[in-house]
Amino acid sequence: MKAMIVNKADQGPGLMLVELPKPEPGLGEILVRVHAAGVTPTELLWYPTTHTKLGTARMQAVPAHEFSGVITAIGKDIQDYDVGDEVYGMNDWFSDGATAEFCITLPQHLARKPITLTHEAAASVPIGALTSWQGLIDRAKLEPGERVLIHGGAGAVGLYAVQVAHSRGARVITTVSNHDVDFVKRLGADEAIDYKASRFEKEVRDVDVVFDGVGGDTLERSWGVLKPGGRMITIAADSEGTDDQRVKDAFFIVEPNQKQLVEIAGQLDAGNLRAFVKTIVSLNEASAAYSGAVTNKKGYGKIVIAFPS
Known about the structure:
This protein is of the alpha/beta class.
């Protein structure tokens, strides 16, 4: 099969097109013919891309951990899926991803693809939607009527955070660029703050939850807008190695979750959530997509790699 693998070059990691053996599913595994894969550019620099779970060096990882496709083979002890099922999902970070014609996955990392979405749209969903779900619902326990501040509401994760918070009946405030104000309000934001024109801490106080995807100075300034007992959630990469216990407690990394993927698919099919694809590229353009060299990036959401049917 054709696949893109991480190639460690002197100037930084890039992707290289190679031919790999088509994998075969083992006990409890599922083989998916990949139709589309979502691009997370920073993934090439993350620890699981360059290391195994045991801490040893990992070479030639296959990136893109969110995907949509069709099951082509199943291992023993698979009960909930059949060959031919259209599915979408998110692989564990230490597993090989979906910049390949086929990928191995596990049933607990999958759900049936939303019937109203194309494979390309479905592949753009899992990481952003699961991150928002796990941050706002599982960790922050966001309740109807609470006020939530979401940093970067027009981003690949933020646009789901705005929608999830809105669907929970929260009052949603978000920071965006001026040209994104109308977009996030259509998603359900009650208030949008142009972070280039004013400092958010002068515009909002006493929020119940802050959902931060920016980190750094933005995260530091966000503590002051929380009400007593308010909850901070951050997914910013620079928070992972912090010594600040407050930040440690607030930081989390998204994980695959079948039950949540099923719920998210239902919300998408019901029209309560919307998926966004910034642009679609071929496998040959995957390296450019990860490096930021793809220039046709109008709109919102993720860059998605599409495979011929």
